[in-house]
Each structure stands twice: as structure tokens, then as C-alpha cells.
Amino acid sequence: MKHGPEPRVFTHSIRVPYAHVDQMSMVYYANYFVYFEMARSELLREAGVPYPEMEKRGVLLPVVAAHCDYRKPARYDDLLVVRSRCTEIRGPRLRIEYEVLRGPECLVTGYTEHVCLSPAGKVLKPVPEIRGLVSGTERVAGT
């Protein structure tokens, strides 16, 4: 059972380009990970720490796990909305969850997990702006 406020939800819209569909006229499965990355970049920008700023501060966020569940296909010219939220922080590790919607219909769900690292590979604590994405102390583990 979840307690406390839910994490903030960010949205990012994408119009499916022809280059993203396969021979079956559906979005090629790997492109959803590209959509996740686009939404994650916007999430960080809206949180006040875009990727270039984090890199200037010496923090990298490599993906250490990624998962995607495909429910229904998206097609060329569909307008998709990717909803993203940081659902967990455990020490240097964070999890971002995604939903890809076409109107009210959920097509895809998934997540990525990241570790905060220095350019030299040293494990770091998340910057305050990232920590602020997860609301409620019971959701921030290991801090």
C-alpha cells in the first residue's frame, strides 16, 4: 500500500514519424525506448536540471536496466503522450516509469533504472533536483 503524495507526473508529446514504423506499419519496438529517453530529458529539464547542466555538475545518469510492456501498437502519424515519473530513489539509484498513451488508451508501459555516476565512474548521490522528484520520505529509501 502506497503512502504519502504521488510523484509528480511529467508529459511529453510525440507525433510518430514515418521513419519510426516497421514493415507492418507499427512503431518499431525499440523506438519506445527512444520515446522514454525523450520524455526523461523533458522530465529533467522541467525539474530544473537538464542533462547538459547535470553533466556540467559532474553527474551522469547511465541506464542500468530498462523494461517495456507492449499492449497495443502505435502507427505513423499517431499523436502520443508519454507520461513519466520518478517513482523511487535508493541511494545513487533511481527508477523512472513511463506510460505511452494515444488519447485515453494506454499502449505501452515501462521503466528505466539509472545510477548517478561521476565521469570517472564514482557512484554519487542524486542532485537535489532529482531527489525532489520523489515526494514523501517513505518513497526515498537509503537516504
Describe this protein's structure.
With 143 residues, the protein is α+β, with helices and mostly antiparallel strands. The chain has a single domain, classed as Thiol Ester Dehydrase, Chain A. 18% of the residues lie in helices and 34% in strands. It is built from three helices and six strands. Strands 1, 2, 3, 4, 5 and 6 form a six-stranded mixed sheet that branches. Strand 3 (79-90) and strand 4 (93-102) form a beta hairpin. The longest helix has 16 residues, at 31-46. Mean pLDDT is 90; it is low at 136-143.
Strand coverage percent: 25-35%
Corresponding CATH superfamily: Hotdog Thioesterase
Instruction: Please provide the count of β strands.
Output: 6
Low-confidence runs (pLDDT<50, min 5 residues)?
A: 136-143
The first-level CATH class name:
Alpha Beta
Named at the architecture level, the CATH assignment is Roll
Label the structural class. Answer: alpha+beta
Distance between the termini: 21 Å
- The amount of helix comes to 10-25%
Shape: elongated
Tally the helices.
Answer: 3
Biggest sheet descriptor = 6 strands, mixed
The radius of gyration computed from the alpha-carbon positions, rounded to a whole number of angstroms, is 16 Å
**Might you state the CATH topology name?**
Thiol Ester Dehydrase, Chain A
